[in-house]
Amino acid sequence: MTKDLFARHRAVLPDWLALYYEDPLEITHGEGRHVWDAAGNRYLDFFGGILTTMTAHALPEVTKAVAEQAGRIVHSSTLYLNRPMVELAERVAQLSGIPDARVFFTTSGTEANDTALLLATAHRRSNAILAMRNSYHGRSFSAVGITGNRGWSPTSLTPLQTLYVHGGVRSRGPYAHLDDRGFIDACVADLEDLLGHTRAPAALIAEPVQGVGGFTSPPDGLYAAFREVLRDRGILWISDEVQTGWGRTGEHFWGWQAHAGSGPPDIVTFAKGIGNGMSIGGVVARAEIMNCLDANSISTFGGTQITMAAGLANLAHLLEHDLQGNARRVGGLLIERLRAVAAQVPHVREVRGRGLMIGVELTRPGTDEAAPEAASTVLEEARAGGLLVGKGGGHDTSVLRIAPPMSLTVAEAEEGAAILERALRSI
């Protein structure tokens, strides 16, 4: 049945629509931190639909909220008052840390970042954008234009002038040998030099932890230091929290809070986990920025009642059960367990991350050369052992991405680490 479905997939869907595994997997249902395939095999899910199943599969509070809302009305558009949308916007605005915040809902992280770029360029009357090397911000025309990762940027055509900045990757590049203070100083000097050669850009957009890039991040405080330089020139700071938001990093509710020394960002984008599988994205910005557009704009599906009901129930569950604290505690144990394994596996260059956002970078032993074949081998072996993980990376795809639902238990973390250990030792 799966082979037949694979053949049908290839016959009607684009060739560039990637599938994991030599024998692609059809996931039919899930519960908690586990999913099942069409053959009845059970897997521990350490990727959560690309960090989207944030709390748990089939979370009762969310499924109940969706069913009850579907029984009333599914959708009406933003042309009408929408109680669930207002209620979720109030919660998100209060949690954002942005003063006088306004919230606009979209259907994805791509659309959220696209909206943030529209707001920033309109507010600043500039089409120049600062972006980080190794970054990823979505698959729309404008988002691809600012993505600093060749593997996810299929065209050089773009409506924006993009200028790439150092700093998103701590352990590679020309400043990797410096200590954290020296690294930050060098990156700030690079930014100041870059700005001396161009007209003032509209904004800097940055992921506090780069997702598709392999869960890389700078030292704490880099974006606060950047913020000082940007503020002097009126340049906005957009924090892309599509993957880092809602407490996944454990230490903070938002990724930008590791760089809060100069205050909150001007704009925050979010998506993925807030809907726990439902299509929710959004933008939070100061009122003067959000309200700068001088033409009509709506969203047909952004903020629709059924997705807002899911988001409200999911956010309430996350806060009431302190899943941020769980991500910190269980994620810390998992990172240390994987680092102990990595010390005995020559292909592992680094285990990095925060909370339940962990990257295992693989290279050819004794070198810094990426090993995508090794990453593919581990992905297959982990699946054979009953564990699903993701992949990512910069110049080549050789980082295992680990991001389970934030309700992961200590026993499940140990189980997943043991399976991954066997998979790593099989290289």
Give the secondary structure arrangement, pairings included.
Layout: H1 2-12, E1 27-31, E2 34-37, E3 42-45, H2 48-51, H3 60-70, H4 83-96, E4 101-106, H5 109-124, E5 128-132, H6 141-146, E6 161-165, H7 180-195, E7 203-206, H8 222-232, E8 236-240, E9 267-270, E10 281-286, H9 287-290, H10 305-320, H11 323-342, E11 348-354, E12 357-362, H12 372-384, E13 387-388, E14 390-392, E15 399-402, H13 410-425
Parallel strand pairs: 3-13, 5-6, 5-7, 7-8, 8-9
Antiparallel strand pairs: 1-2, 2-3, 4-10, 9-10, 11-12, 12-15, 14-15
Helix pairs in contact: 3-10, 4-10, 7-8, 11-13, 12-13
Could you please describe the fold and organization of this structure?
The chain is an alpha/beta fold and 427 residues long. It has 13 helices and 15 strands. The strands form 3 sheets. A 7-stranded mixed β-sheet has the order 4-10-9-8-7-5-6, with helices on both faces. A 4-stranded mixed β-sheet has the order 1-2-3-13. It has a 4-stranded antiparallel β-sheet with strand order 11-12-15-14, covered by helices on one side. Strand 11 (348-354) and strand 12 (357-362) form a beta hairpin. Helix 4 crosses helix 10 (305-320), helix 7 packs parallel to helix 8 and helix 11 (323-342) packs parallel to helix 13 (410-425). The longest helix is centred in the C-terminal third of the chain and has 20 residues, at 323-342. It is globular, with a radius of gyration of 21 Å.
